[in-house]
Amino acid sequence: MSSWPYWFEIAVICGITAVGTIVWGHWEEHTPKWRRIGKIAVFCGLSVLLSATAGRFWFFVLLGVLVAIVLLIHAWWLPRKGINGWTGEPREKYYALRGWKWPPEIR
């Protein structure tokens, strides 16, 4: 065990991010790298801050709220916009929603 008590929160957030990037990272292909890195830093910082001030229980509450938000977006909001919340199809609508150019430029 580490002597720093918040390693667990960082490990959970980074683990979720690693799996999410491997499995669903292709949906963020046009998001700038600084924004993706910034999102990880913000979530790690928020997790440690919450755990340090309110306790680890509230860290898990935060994770539950984030999961609920993701489910709400993918199961309700995206389908209302005509986009499949699991596959992101039709791609043209997904790109328009994100403000990206369709068809994507080949790099």
UniProtKB/TrEMBL annotation:
Superkingdom, natural source: Bacteria
Which keywords does the record carry? Membrane, Transmembrane, Transmembrane helix
**Residues that span the membrane, as ranges:** 6-25, 60-78
**The protein, known as:** Transmembrane protein
- What is the species of this protein? Rhodococcus wratislaviensis
